[in-house]
Amino acid sequence: MAESAAELDDKLELQAARIQHLERDYEQVLEDYTAVQERVKQLEERLESSQTCSTPAAESDKPERRLPSQAAPPGQWEQVVSRVSRLTDGKMQDQDLADQEARKKKEVNAVLRDLVQEEDETPASLKEKVDALLAEKLETTVACVSAKRLQKGRNDAAQGIVIVQFEKKQHKITVFKARGKLAGTTIGLDDDLTILQQQRKNAAWPAFKDFRSRGIKIQWRAEKLFVKEGEHFVEHKMLNL
After folding, report:
1. What is the pLDDT of residue 74?
2. In the chain, what is the greatest distance between 2 CA atoms, to the nearest angstrom?
3. 54: pLDDT strictly greater than 80
4. Fewer CB within 10 Å: C terminus or N terminus of the chain?
């Protein structure tokens, strides 16, 4: 039995919370890893300094002196660094897996931006308004399964954002092919991105503004930025994404 829109919304909210939790864990692991690297560096410097200050004659006369107890053997620190690295990789894998699951749930969704909210708007009237937009403005035969306006938050602009769910991915593709007909309006139509996708899109935003300022044709495909080269659009590769 197909899940209701409310059930899907609840699952998406839980998924978003899970991703945020993983991100916080990942940031903490990176901090711990950086601290371990710094500690290893300090110990190496102390060891090098102690070796430099001692003279060969003194070394032959004096009994062997052990390093301070806090200076762990290099092999032990290598084990710590290796363990932290494995933990970091594991967190990243968990984050990627959670993102993939969220993408599957969002692949039939779209985001309508700057869709004015009526004073007496209801869930039913909002769906009718979206269906009318799809039929009259975009000239498609597609009707949405549900339309949900984001809850009011600190940013009043969020009131113009509506999450639209379609029955099939093909219906969404049909609508997106017609979104050029929204030109001349303030309404925007975008993919419903996961948290990780949105982060990657935000990272590519400076490049987007740079290309646009130079009059270069560009377009978004989900979180990926494509640039017109000759007759085709080519993905703009970002480093560390």
Report:
1. 56
2. 96
3. no
4. N
Spatial distance between the Cα atoms of 51 and 33, rounded to a whole number of angstroms: 27
pLDDT digits (tens, 9 = 90+) for 24-41: 666 666 666 677 667 777
How far, in Å, CA of 127 to CA of 164, rounded?
9
For residues 146 and 123, what is the distance between their CA atoms, to the nearest angstrom? 8
**Which two three-digit tokens encode residue 182?**
């929204």
User: In angstroms, rounded to a whole number, what is the distance separating the alpha carbons of residues 13 and 4?
Assistant: 14
Look up the pTM and report it: 0.54
Q: What's the residue count for the chain?
A: 241
Name the phi and psi angles at 116, rounded to 5: -60, 140
DSSP one-letter string for 172-234 = HHHHHHTGGGGTTSS-EEEE---HHHHHHHHHHHHHHHHHHHTT--EEEETTEEEEEETTEEE
Q: What are phi and psi of 203, to 5 degrees?
A: -65, -30
How many whole angstroms separate alpha carbon 162 and alpha carbon 188?
A: 10
Whole-number Å distance between alpha carbons of 22 and 28? 10
pLDDT at 5 (0 to 100): 54
74-82: list long-range contacts, CB under 8 Å, 24+ apart: 77/36, 77/39, 77/40, 77/43, 80/36, 81/33, 81/36, 81/37, 81/40
Q: Say which residues have a Cβ less than 8 Å from residue 193's Cβ, sequence separation at least 6.
A: 106, 201, 222, 223
Taking residues 4-9, what's their average pLDDT? 56
